[in-house]
Amino acid sequence: WFSTKTSNLDDRALHHMLVPAATHALHELAHLTSTTPAGLAHALPAFGTDESPVRSTTACHRCTAHHGIRQPVPVHLPVHHKVCTRHGIWLSDLGKPHLDLSPCPEITTAQHRANRLLRRFTPQQLTLAHQTAAEAVPPWPASPAAVPHHWRYRLLALQTHNHHRGLPTDLDAYTHAAIYPEAIELAAAALADRLDIPARSTGEVLRIPEQRHQ
Known about the structure:
The chain is mainly alpha-helical and about 210 residues long. About 45% of the residues lie in helices and about 5% in strands. The strands form two sheets. Strands 3-4-5 form a three-stranded antiparallel β-sheet. A two-stranded antiparallel sheet has the order 1-2. Helix 5 (about 105-115) runs parallel beside helix 9 and helix 6 (about 125-135) packs across helix 9 (about 180-190). The longest helix has 15 residues, at about 20-35. The relative contact order is 0.11.
């Protein structure tokens, strides 16, 4: 099991031939590391015991610095976990720099809202709703008066602030972070429409309520 997994670059992939050996390997490693199988399985998605969607990123650099760790720490986080709410840091994809969200605290607020949605919906439902909503966010403000409240205004603020920190301004993470509050708002509305609807497959396309421009 271990030799096969170490030669596979995708540590989440689990061939059907490895499934019977996963439990034994988990207990063996737990014994060697003096930890519990449950704790180890939660920390290492490679064992395939958790079906919740995850993504590869690096731990918040301010959190790790607090513990004296200066180098990037690769981690798997729940796919809906985009922001370190303690430090206001956008956790970009693995290998990409983190963004300081201090000019736009509403992005951190949106992460708190996403976390609250998980009290009523599954991670899969929230993930699908967010992905669908992100594509439905209007690309341009409806009028000049709406510019200060539009995500492109937030985009410029993030680029300007983080450029002063030495980061380039052409990162995809800027756009993902900038539209996050609107995307979560639309996702919440779409999910609310489903409260009285029987559960459907996670592959079904969600209907995003149309936005009304003032």
